[in-house]
Amino acid sequence: MPSVMGVKGPIAESDLGLTLPHEHLFVDLSCYCPSEPQNEVGKEFYHREVSLSIRDQVVDHPWDIVDNTRLNNLSTAIEEVLLYAALGGKTITDLSCCTAMGRLPEGLLKVAENTGINVIMSCGRYTLPSMTEQDRRMSVADVEAQIFNEFINGANGIMPGLLKSGFTSKIDHDAEICTLRAVGRVQCRVGCAVAIHPYIWESESHLILDILEEEGCDLKRVILCHQDYLGIKSDYLNSLCKRGAYLEFDTFGCGWINDAMWQQTDAVKIGFLKEQVKLGNADHLLISGDICLKIMLATWGGTGYAHIPKTLIPAMRTAGFSNDLIHLLTVENPSRVYCH
């Protein structure tokens, strides 16, 4: 039977169940924080710990407090995942693909062991701001060897199940293109899924698919993340599906954060999904929440990993999605793209 590698071992296709394909149980996105303010008030806020007492301030300025960009507490991760499990959740994919992005393989294993949830770990490289100067100088062959070795031998013995590459903005940074080519080559060798963080504001993902295709990557294993931001461009998204790629609408539950990245409501995104279903692309759609900041967790007043089964799926039913269609998007599609 087809399977995907989880942190505790292979997971059979039939055991994946309700799956969140794009989350972060542990992450460090402080590479996107601005420089430390010079004034005392700004500096004090920059170094504060997130708490419910300052939640409104953090919602308004999510990148101006470094602690908000780091998820690194095992107990909190377990508590949050248990909320998801209690509502029927079965699998979570952690897309913090490398140490520079705050990935904690041992933490992922402990979450899986303490919650009963399937946890799938990714490997690869993230965007340019997360790379060291040495990382930026690596050749495609060197990055391929590094990623392939980790995929085969694991990170501290803990095995990944999919690959990841990312872009900061336009597809014109050599180091990011190097990673894309490397993961394309590794995918061709191992057959797993590949998650790509594209340029989220522009319609440039055909270039991503072109490059992956040049390296022998199977486009039917490619997941294009964060397609919410271009959801209004239905014909463009349709054209990506027609090449075999999966569209991931993965920022559900985040529309309340005061940042341009998360300003769309769930209702708007559900509308984008409906449009792609009408175009015949139901088999190429994935949904998730991309929890990556502390204020997104239920602990600090956010929606947490439980949002998809607790709130979004009922909203999808109200919007006219059948139970079979919801099952396709949340269970069948993830298992199809992951398992080989």
Distance between the termini: 8 Å
**And the CATH topology?**
TIM Barrel
| Major sheet description | 8 strands, parallel
Instruction: Compute the average pLDDT.
Output: 95
CATH superfamily: Metal-dependent hydrolases
CATH architecture: Alpha-Beta Barrel
Output the helix-strand order.
EEEEHHEHEHEHHEHEHEHEHEHH
Spatial strand arrangement across the major sheet = 3-6-7-8-9-10-11-12
Round the Cα radius of gyration to an integer and report it. Answer: 19 Å
Name of the CATH class: Alpha Beta
Please outline the helices and strands:
Elements: E1 3-6, E2 9-12, E3 18-23, E4 27-28, H1 40-46, H2 55-60, E5 70-71, H3 74-85, E6 89-94, H4 105-115, E7 118-124, H5 133-137, H6 140-153, E8 162-166, H7 174-190, E9 193-197, H8 205-214, E10 222-224, H9 234-241, E11 246-249, H10 266-278, E12 285-287, H11 307-318, H12 323-338
Parallel strand pairs: 3-6, 6-7, 7-8, 8-9, 9-10, 10-11, 11-12
Antiparallel strand pairs: 1-2, 4-5
Helix pairs in contact: 3-4, 6-7, 7-8
